Amino acid sequence: MGIDFKGRVAIVTGAGGGLGRQHALALAARGAKVLVNDLGGAVDGSGGTVTAAQAVVDEIRAAGGEALANGASVTDFAAVEAMVQQAIDAWGRVDILVNNAGILRDKSFAKMDMADFRLVVDVHLMGAANCCKAVWQHMMAQQYGRIVMTTSSTGLYGNFGQANYGAAKLAQVGLMQTLAIEGAKYNIHVNALAPTAATRMTEGLMPQEVLDALKPEAVVPAMLVLAHESAPTRTILCAGAGTFEAAHITLTQGIHLGISAEVPEQLAARLAEVTDRTGEQVPQSGAAQGTNEVSKAMAARV
């Protein structure tokens, strides 16, 4: 197999079922030692048991692989640090982190309780940040790391009834962008995966024939590519039903209007020029916006 993980140690969160389970099984099948993390709670985040994670570990071991179970909540930083230490104590390193853990508490924003908004952000965003922080120093020290965030089309493009989930998922992309920049000199590559998969989170939301096409296994190749030593960095890879796309956050060329009193009216009248995507770029850092703005301002003075 061209993409193998022999000698690598991976942590996959939310791996007790659905997509996370498939990630863990695939990494193990290709040679990785896998720490299977899962709180074992319901879709809304309530409850918890290590049973789900242990069942996946048993599957991996039955197939001849190496795995450990962990039931930590990704919202508990001390527990996450202990989880990472568990992997290091057993196998000496952590090479791969797949931030897959998540919950849903869907309602329209008008009906959504802010406690539900906060909890979803805490699990998806702070959970990913906690896990990244816990592995970061180890990856820096070993001069190697591969981190996969799990974003969503809801975060990238929106979806009715998922303001909390969408906010958290796009925030993971923002975290990815900066960690990829900071990790570059340490050979730490950070990417994001936007999956479309039928899991317990999507039961009852789509016709059965669509759910059958959206098997979680169809997303796994994208994760393997993003977690491998040959992975790109700062890539948002979308995957579902065996189809793969890439998403980009772009910056248009824009226009310079100056700072006169008439600029609001001029901007409104010429907004189509500002949003014209001809010649748009995918910035290598946030500095690209300021560079574009100042360069146009300087050119206008000539």
Summarize the structure in words:
The protein is about 45% helix and about 15% strand. The protein is built from eleven helices and eight strands. The protein has helices at about 20-30, 50-60, 75-90, 115-140, 155, 165-185, 210-215, 220-225, 265-270, 270-275, 285-300, and strands at about 10, 35, 65-70, 95-100, 145-150, 190-195, 235-240, 245. An eight-stranded mixed sheet has the order 3-2-1-4-5-6-7-8, with helices on both faces. The longest helix has 29 residues, at about 115-140. The chain is globular.
How is the topology of this model organized?
Layout: E1 9-12, H1 18-29, E2 33-37, H2 51-62, E3 67-70, H3 77-91, E4 96-99, H4 114-142, E5 145-150, H5 153-157, H6 163-183, E6 188-196, H7 208-213, H8 220-227, E7 236-240, E8 243-247, H9 263-269, H10 271-275, H11 287-301
Parallel strand pairs: 1-2, 1-4, 2-3, 4-5, 5-6, 6-7
Antiparallel strand pairs: 7-8
Give the tags:
single chain, 302 residues, 8-stranded mixed beta sheet, 11 helices, alpha/beta, globular
Quick take:
With 302 residues, the protein is an alpha/beta fold. The protein is 45% helix and 14% strand.
Pattern of helices and strands: EHEHEHEHEHHEHHEEHHH
Give the low-confidence spans.
Answer: none
C-alpha geometry: globular
Instruction: Indicate the mean pLDDT.
Output: 94
The helix tally amounts to 11
Strand content: 5-15%
Number of strands: 8
Strand arrangement in the largest pleated sheet = 3-2-1-4-5-6-7-8
- Helix fraction bin: 40-55%
